[in-house]
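yo, Protein kinase domain-containing protein is done. seq:
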Amino acid sequence: MARIECPASLVLHTPACDDRTPADDDVPDVSTLDAFEAVYTPCGDGARYSVETSQLLHEGSTRVYRGTLTVDGRRPTHSEVVCKLGRRQALHREADLYRGKLAPLQGRYVPTFVGLFDGATAAEAEAGDDGMSCLVLTYEGDRMQESLYTRRFFFRKKVVSALLAVHEAGVCHGAFNEANIVVRDGDIAPLLVGFGGARDHECHRGTPIEFYAPQPHNEAVGCEEVYWACIVAAVWLPGV
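structure:
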């Protein structure tokens, strides 16, 4: 991925812990101001991105925050974002998917790509580790908390349609489950997230996916991820 000529920048504001004492009231409610340099952003060179994080959504091999975005001091139309912090190689690969094969699906089946930034958090920079990246995507809703098969027909159908669209774009999700489905506008619009383990994929799906048809053999479907997603979504009548 080519670096832009005059890079934009990102400042990530992480809220302080809630266990401050009254004597700390005059301390700004920010524990870190982490600076990153843009690898790619749609807004062009020199733009100043800032995200005020409000919630830690996930912590593991990556840290995922929800926050509010401003660009050059102004909030864009879709200002609620997710910031994914992790190792550079993995997040560059994920960003390449969003910018490439997943680009036509953004906003409908997957989140919209906002930007990719390289750098290190304050603690990591102090430790001499500059191999971190921050992938910024639009926030599209809360993750599912219940089993997919318990949801109504039209919701399950939209989830399966989203996965089929991803496969038709040449991508295997690699971790399809309820934790990687987010829901916006009530039950109306589920989207897929969690493409950290996704890979290029040539889908050889065979038999059409039809709800409430008899369950076919997995070899007839021709794609293992699609087959098991249909099982999770209770697409077919039970096999006999």
